[in-house]
Amino acid sequence: MTRSCKILELPGWQNSGPDHWQSRWERLYGDVRVEQHDWTRPLRGDWITRLEDVVLAPTEPTVLVAHSLGCLLVAAWAAISRNTQKVQGALLVAPGDAERDEFRAPLHSWSPIVLQRLPFKSFLLGSQNDPYCSAVRAREFAVAWGSEFVDCGSQGHINAESGLGDWPRGRAFVHALAGGASVQTQTI
Question: What range defines the domain where residue 123 resides?
Fold first, then answer.
């Protein structure tokens, strides 16, 4: 892929471990992880502020690559930032549903989930058997955010436990967002 864009990785709650595709992409492609000061007690305002600081740093266009709670971060940040023009696109993978009963207490600052159209192109990749967000809810997020929805089949939370390895198929979406060739979204 031509590196005309800065690729920012936005892990979810509790960060992405070394075998997660986001961590692998950092090692393989030099993507930059947006480090949060507290991965276990994520506060939406703090995470938004951190993302804003990092988006402002590069001079080249940016592609956001979000997983789980990172997807909700993209939506919340885009709703209030005056710098969304710096983002060329976003890959939103396996959004977490912070409004589910079991997540309301630890993720209290993430409710209500921001459901506004994103001001940049985005793909939302969802799984039929994600334990943290139903496929129906993931599609609702895609519609609200104006994202093209891609059904990944039964891939769990689309993380290290899904056995994706370096996940070249997922990387094709980043390439498309960065101005590369189009990607076939029918199968993943």
Answer: 6-177
